[in-house]
Design brief:
Blueprint: E1 9-13, E2 30-34, H1 57-70, H2 75-91
Parallel strand pairs: 1-2
Helix pairs in contact: 1-2
Length: 100
């Protein structure tokens, strides 16, 4: 039986500046994501094949909140991130009429 690693680390290396860390970890200890792997734009509500948003911007912000919860952000941090997102969406004119 192969021993399981004690921890798994996730590196999101958008600028490819941490590549030299790869040899420091066993393959089963590291989840490595590059800019190509990370295709999430929090300022762009996902669209369907017809190019129309699949959900209102407010719902998308709530989905981002739940995603960030996976990274163990506490409630005050989550509230702050969502407040900043809503302000930025409003500044960019992305909220529209529906603020769900």
């Amino acid at each position: 039986m192969t021993p399981q690693p004690k921890h798994t680390y996730m590196v999101i290396d958008v600028g490819d500046e941490y590549r030299d860390m790869l040899p420091l970890y066993a393959p089963d200890e590291l989840i490595w994501m590059t800019a190509d792997d990370l295709s999430l734009n929090i300022f762009a509500v996902p669209t369907g094949e017809d190019g129309k948003p699949v959900m209102p911007p407010g719902k998308w912000i709530n989905n981002i909140r739940e995603l960030l919860r996976l990274f163990w952000l506490n409630e005050p941090s989550l509230n702050l991130v969502c407040e900043i997102l809503r302000e930025e969406y409003e500044r960019r004119g992305l909220l529209g009429e529906s603020n769900e």
